[in-house]
Amino acid sequence: MLLLSRQDIKKVFSILDAVEADKEAFTLVADGKCDMPLRTNIPAPKYDGCFLFMPAYAEELNTAALKTVNIFPHNIDNGLPSSPAQVLLIDGKTGIVTAILDGTYVTQLRTGASSGAAFELLAKKTCRIGALIGTGGQAATQLEAMIAVRKLEEVRVYDLNYERTAIFAKQMQEELQSYGTRIIPVSSSDEAIDDADLLITVTPSSKPVFDGTKIKKGCTISCVGAYQHHMQEMDPAILPRASKIYFDSREAVLSESGDILIPLEKGIITEDDFTGDIGNVIKGELIGRENDDEIIVYETVGVGAQDLVTAKIIYEKAIKAGVGTQWN
Length: 328
Hints:
The N and C termini lie close together (6 Å). The chain has two domains: 2-106 and 305-326, ornithine cyclodeaminase, domain 1, CATH 3.30.1780.10; 123-302, 3-Layer(aba) Sandwich (Rossmann fold). A hairpin with a 5-residue loop joins strand 5 and strand 6 (97-102). It is an alpha/beta fold and 328 residues long. The strands form two sheets. Strands 9-8-7-10-11-14-12-13 form an eight-stranded parallel β-sheet. It has a seven-stranded mixed β-sheet with strand order 2-3-4-5-6-1-15. The chain has helices spanning 6-12, 15-31, 103-122, 139-149, 162-175, 189-193, 250-256, 258-266, 278-282, 304-321, and strands spanning 2-4, 40-44, 49-58, 63-71, 85-91, 97-102, 129-133, 154-158, 182-185, 198-201, 220-223, 244-247, 276-277, 296-299, 325-326.
């Protein structure tokens, strides 16, 4: 069995590799070729956290995977990951675990890449300004995915804690300097989204984190953080303005995400307003962006197929490169 740390993974796998892996995963989902029971969610209310267990099996890839990812948002205040995780990669022919991967980093990669895939497929070809709301454990790869698929002049970053936002922006400016994008901390959500072509929200908020009436025409929005019914990052005012509403998985979103469930319950939108899954765009079965004025919304809660495909490709690259630690 191969043990793969964050540093091991970084040696063989990039954010653009992750975007391609997610696109393969979303195609499997669209084709119904990945068995993904809805994740098991065990709340830990004492710490405002929860334990999540995400299995997946793709017969045609002869691969299964199980991810444990535990969401503890207060960890960030103690310098700990807010979503510690491990991924077990399993040989579909024998049932033997072939690798254990740093699931925190795999989650960061595949979650960031989900927004990256959405922007690659749905955003305007020419974008200048990005906005990122949230600076927690998933934010760095969200930011890198955004600037990896669209060449941006600047990205404005906002979080409730400005000091933390400034530290994050400075660190990201140093780590991602090769992209040539200015990464700027701002003190309000309105300042972040002003004239933004791309917007990512990645917070555990239970109330909207931006004003949907102030989003400009042509913006593509990826909402990432609302993985439970009570969570709602997205201002529902954006939904009637949106030309298209896409999901990573309609089934998963409609079982979990307050961003969509709450507006449905309030009658702000109906299921007739949904465009479909992004995998169907990849396959050419659904139309993506049709003009530069469309506002397009992408809601993602994450699915096990992403972990499976991402872990499988990382494992194959690591074996080829001789990277990782063998545990016999």
